[in-house]
Structures are given as structure tokens and as C-alpha cells.
Write a structure and sequence with these properties.
6 helices; 175 residues; globular
């Protein structure tokens, strides 16, 4: 299949549910079009349902996780910072191979918010992005400088969520 030559930077942000889910939907659509996808998760680690599903797509999706999956708030450990930095460096290397048509940076906005990755480093990444690579950044708290450079910004806004009734993340739905 012929790949679209106009590629953009997309951001999914906000306090509502659906940011990673939107990126996963885009991944599925890209794979269906024959694209090769790099799906990178920051601050997450483990065999979530989406990781299991992505692995079933075979060689069209490469999955990388950089984080312990335990950091939520407060001061990140040096190990967590080093992992995020390593992830960003590996994304730059992967992007420069021009092997990937779509690069998803899941929760990178959160990693920037908590200082694991400097905003300036992500700006530099965006500036180095080849024009034929689509890039998606997800997570709450997108920095203004990133939103300004993006071609599409979607904010997920929570209106109502069953979490407020004590319902925890459910396998197959939130994890």
C-alpha cells in the first residue's frame, strides 16, 4: 500500500480517559495500512492487555517500555529519570533509521511534566522528525511549547468516571 506522504505531529492530552486508547486505535489503523509502528511507553512497565494485543500484530509493531510502572507523583528516582532518557535516546536512533512510519510516545507528556525528560529535548526530537514519519505524543499536562508545535491537539476531558465510585482499572478496558 502507498503511504501518505504528509505526516504530522499529534497530541492526545487532558484528564479524561482515552489518550492511550486513541493512540492504540491509530496504531491499529496504521498496521492495517501496512505501516511499521514504534510504540513507546514512558512510565509504564508490564504486560498490559494492549501490549499483549500489539505483540499479536507481529513484526509491524515494535514495543518499548521505559519506566518502572511505579512512579506516579512526587520526585522520580534517578533510575526512572535514566530510563526515560534512555528511551528518548533510543527513539531518536530509531527515528533516524527511517524504518518506522508511525512513532507513538505514550505518556511522554507526563514524563516531561515530572522532569524525567526536558521539554527542550522533545522539541529537538520534533524538529528532527523526518517529514514522512507520523508522531503521536500522549499524556496529561502537555507543555504549551509542545502543543504549539503539534499539528493536531485533542484534549480528553473527564465529565464523569466510575473511578469516583471506587471502581478500579478493569482488565480489558483500562489495562
Amino acid at each position: 500500500m502507498q503511504k501518505e506522504t504528509r505526516c504530522f505531529v499529534q497530541v492526545y492530552t487532558g484528564n479524561g480517559k482515552g489518550k492511550t486508547t486513541a493512540a492504540l486505535g491509530l496504531t491499529l489503523r496504521a498496521v492495517g495500512a501496512g505501516w511499521i509502528v514504534l510504540f513507546v511507553q514512558f512510565l509504564k512497565q508490564g504486560e498490559y492487555s494492549e501490549i499483549k494485543a500489539l505483540k499479536r500484530l507481529g513484526g509491524q509493531v515494535k514495543i518499548c517500555q521505559y519506566g518502572s510502572g511505579e512512579f506516579v507523583r512526587g520526585r522520580p528516582s534517578e533510575k526512572e529519570v535514566a530510563s526515560a532518557q534512555r528511551g528518548l535516546n533510543e527513539v531518536i536512533e530509531a527515528m533516524e533509521t527511517k524504518k518506522y512510519d508511525l512513532i507513538i510516545l505514550d505518556e511522554i507528556n507526563v514524563a516531561m511534566h515530572f522532569g524525567l525528560i526536558p521539554v527542550e529535548s522533545v522539541i529537538a526530537l520534533l524538529e528532527r522528525r523526518p517529514p514522512d514519519v507520523e508522531m503521536v505524543l500522549t499524556g496529561r499536562w502537555v507543555p504549551k511549547e509542545i502543543a504549539e508545535r503539534a499539528d493536531l491537539v485533542t484534549e480528553m476531558r473527564m465529565i464523569k468516571h466510575y473511578f469516583s465510585k471506587g471502581i478500579l482499572a478493569r482488565t480489558g478496558i483500562e489495562r
